[in-house]
Amino acid sequence: MPLIGVLALQGAFREHLAALRRVGVRAMEIRRKTHIDGIDALMLPGGESTAIGKLLTEEDMFSPLLERLRGGMPVYGTCAGLILLCKTIEHSGQPRFGILDATVRRNAFGRQTDSFETRLSIPEIGKGAFPAVFIRAPAITETGPGVRVLAEIDGRAVAVRQGNALATAFHPELTKDIRLHRYFADMCRAAATPGADRANA
Ligand code: GLN
Fold this sequence. Notes:
By secondary structure, the protein is an alpha/beta fold. It is built from five helices and twelve strands.
């Protein structure tokens, strides 16, 4: 069974660990470089993308993680984690992994709507609407040809997938709905099984 590492430098990582454990996959906190070797997949939590980027560099974890991600290690980024995955961040030169061929706008929903919850249609994970919690959330404003939009609000993508990379602008770990964590766990299992059906990728 694949081991999912949850980056635990800053932000909402504990809730992700709890959700992954409820799904029934193995998960551990990633706090330093030596933790990276044993993991099969990565979860990048929400928080503050500039702070997480700075800590990743300080802890000398940025390059080894980027190498694994470029090698196709499954990854799920939520909110700040989504920002760290995108190739282009509007008006920002902050560090990012850039493996997701997309442009992201930070704090895209404005100050008036700093935080909100909405019921989102994500057909990929099933029929029922997903209770999506947005906190100073980003939105994806442009996507490259390899990126599939899984959900959007007013024409802006808030859930996307490109190969083994999954990203959502909202915080699924703050609700009881574990369908996105289960979906990611399935991606990790498929990546760990040679010859597994990659039709979804
Ligand atoms: N606004 C934050 C950023 O730009 C992301 C907020 C979040 O992760 N909830 O990094």
